[in-house]
Amino acid sequence: MAESFFERPILNSPYERPVRHWELDGDGQPTNLIIEARRRSDLITPVPKPKKRRRSREPGGFVFDAGEGISSREQEYNPTPIINEVRTYVEVWRNLKNPDQWQVTSETARLLQHWRHHQFAGVRPFFCQIEAVETAIWLVEVAPKMGAKGSKFVEYLKGANAQANPELLRLGLKLATGAGKTTVMAMLIAWQTVNAIRHPNSKNFSRGFLVVAPGITIRDRLQVLLPNDPQSYYRHREIVPPDMLRDIDQAKIVITNYHAFKLRERIELSKGTRQALEGWRGEKVQTLETEGQMLQRVMPELMGLKNIVVLNDEAHHCYRERVKDGDDVEEELKGEERLEAKENNEAARMWISGLEIVKRKLGISLVYDLSATPFFLRGSGYVEGTLFPWTMSDFSLMDAIECGIVKLPRVPVADNVPGGDTPKFRNLWEYIGKKLPKKGRGAGGGAADPLSLPVELQTALDALYGHYKKTFELWEEAKIGVPPVFIVVCNNTSTSEAVYKYISGFHRTEGDETTLQNGHFELFRNFNEFGDRLPRPNTILIDSAQLESGEALDKDFKEIAADEIEQFRRDLVERTGDARAGESIDEATLLREVMNTVGKKGKLGEQIRCVVSVSMLTEGWDANTVTHILGVRAFGTQLLCEQVVGRALRRASYDLNDEGLFDVEYADVLGIPFDFASKPVIAPPGKARETVRVHAVKPERDALEIVFPRVEGYRIDLPQERLQASFGPDHVLHLTPELVGPSITKNQGIVGEGVDLTLAHLQDKRASSILYDLTTHLLYSKYRDIGEAPKLHLFGQLKRIARQWLEGGYLKCSGGTYPAQLAYKEIADMAAERIKAAITLTLVGDNPVKAILDAYNPTGSTSYVNFSTSKETRWQTDPCKCHINWVVCDSDWEAEFCRVAESHPKVRAYAKNQNLGLEVPYLMGSAPRKYLPDFIVQIDDGRDDPLNLIVEIKGYRGEDAKEKANTMRAYWVPGVNNLGKFGRWEFAEFTAVYEIESNFSALVDGILGEKV
Q1: Shortest CA distance to 87 belongs to which of 46, 9, 139, 35?
Q2: Neighbours of 702 (CB within 10 A)
Q3: DSSP state, residue 581
Q4: Cβ atoms of residues 613 and 489 within 8 Å
Q5: Buried/exposed 521-542: b ≥16 CB within 10 Å, e otherwise
Q6: Interval 444-481: pLDDT, tens
Q7: Whether the Cβ atoms of residue 379 and residue 194 lie closer than 8 Å to each other
Q8: Does residue 230 contact residue 575 with C-beta atoms inside 8 Å?
Q9: Angle at Cα 161 formed by Cα 160 and Cα 164, nearest 5°?
Q10: Fewer beta carbons below 10 Å: N end or C end of the chain?
């Protein structure tokens, strides 16, 4: 049943402290979270408990303990006691009725009363925002006046910083994503500025501020902290009373990204010129700017001030890497994780070094760190996930969810794929990671094919889009004015480009012909039905490569969006005070503005529906209309999961209902293994095993040697006459959730209603369209050589055969799958390969199939087997039946076949294909694979040369097994037999363990009967 966008209230008030407690199991571990909803008597839905995990490669889980903190696998973490102690003092102080007892300046008291009690025209500050600022005020103004009770907190802060930041004094304020850190910064600036202006001799306050962000995107968003910005929070959010706005205008605020701290070259010299100058002068030529010159470039407004206040946004990127002691035991990072840790450390070093320069040259009184995740990152020298020790206020994501100030994330808790430890779409990367293109986006033919995305990814996109479409329609009915936003976060630029083209459409060039492959999702298409690009894109691609390319937006966009661009230009002039600032706006700046204004009415990005990005959207992007998010990357930690999920958690509406609460809003999440509660998994040590050597016994058993061809491909000559197809059970393609991904995924949050993500919208595609698309794919992919024109004269015959396949029941759909999923390239390739195999079977007697052998190693033999194994399931072979001393079995079924083969009188020799080198090339979809049959059995059927029988022992026969069997019967066996150099070959499968002996005997009797 379709749900409405705004549900009934179920969460705590955003203006009160959240209250909760945990139910514990018999072992004292937290199980269900019970939320005591303020002003409500009904209980709230408990936390959905995720299924147990077997695999150790799951991201490092966090555990919500009985307090308000989290734990990592590396260490059990409880909230720092100092945070709770400060919170207790602040709460007692807050509840004092008489402002004269607050021990703060009259200006501070006025601001506190304003934030707590003023009737705001818009959204009033949340409890968590006021609590964070109150903590900062209490530590600066109140604690020093409390004697020993208060001074211990100041001493604690100094000690915590002395270990990690000896040159700086930092104070951490932890606020969950979506809790409004920018508002807290504005409140801190207002408190400091008003007091500094009215108490100019006080050392506790400053009117000079350096706001540091981790990137341009966040830097642009923080412009609202400037008093002269058109959207200045001090005026638009009523952060200060009107009579204090004049004081705010005297603040000196510089907003920059930490990259600006890097010393730049003042004079560009070529290598030769530099060497010539240095050789002539006999000294190094200093072309790098000095620290003072860097400060003059980055913060000229602050050069005359002292004791500057610094505000670090996303402060977990700013730290001094710890030098490891000899006793440190830390997991060694490898591959991409090592590179990522190196990049993080270099960025953190540049950030904190820049602040240290400011401290030495100008002076810094205090650094306020604001972050949703102020934890040390992997490779920092500290245990990953350790809270910054100078954090003094903590408002977690769980608190934010309970209070309702963010959307409620819903993640997969169940699906209709049997046998999985967790829902398949919970950690999508586990199933598709190895199938996606590697890092680096090539040009031309080197780019990844958008139509070759893994089928599980296509199903996930379809499932999430189906729910997005319903949400889009509900928003249109409600006349919200802007569309909901769908985000895809990818692992690299190659993947992001392929996903972007798959979603929005692209032009495919083959030879001299260019055709439009329109986007798979109607609401996200960037092209109309005539192949013309829409001037206002529905989908945008955000990554560094595109920002630098200068081709981010359509050439007509500037004309269509002229009014919005002109408004952006005026905003730039007003914000910077530079009349020429808006004269030239490059494509990268324009695209950043589109991204920064997604979902904002009257702005460039108001109608964007889908954003495909690389990692740059893990933080700092504040669109509040995001309703769906899909992760297409690895998530090594819950910290990263929280950052990415956080992009979808900002609320669309902050209107209170009749109970003074926010109505719940949902964000549906796939592909991100975000856990509300999980426990560490400790793998037990494995037991020791006996090792044996498996080898060919020479020369005693040389007479039992088996030689086989090493095939690397097939060549098929089509007849000139009419094509026919002989369909059988193995030409059936059965679409199931196990093959294509879950068709029903249950998404559930810690509270509130769940939702089922399905593929029901796919049933609307017409059967004639499916037949046409399948025939076209069959013609272009299976009956056309590379570089040649398609054989269009075959279209009619192939259409007839494709209809025979579709209408003959050879396509089966179950578990909520649909024939329309033949549009997925991998599924279309599987269907086309089944049809082609059925056609090829009818041509076996005409010998059109030839096997292509490995040019460098055309034959293999049992003589070369030689390896060691500790596998316990093995069979010691009969010296009269097998060239190799042991058969290493994958199952008891294979051991049973060894017994059957050795006991049959017509078996001359047999061998297990273990390290033997017998590989059968086949296609699974469009992906080339190698099939390793289980056994080769030589049967004495009365002829001069024995019959070579390829045997497969198969319990469960999935779609993969059908492709292997079709390849053996239609290509490998006839192709090798047609060569005439390797004897006679056949293929057989045995699928019933208790009937292997009788079935094998019947097979041999049938072979002998044919030879009579």
Answers
A1: 139
A2: 12
A3: T
A4: yes
A5: bebbbbbeeeeebbebbbbbbb
A6: 445 678 888 999 999 999 999 999 999 999 999 988 88
A7: no
A8: yes
A9: 100
A10: N
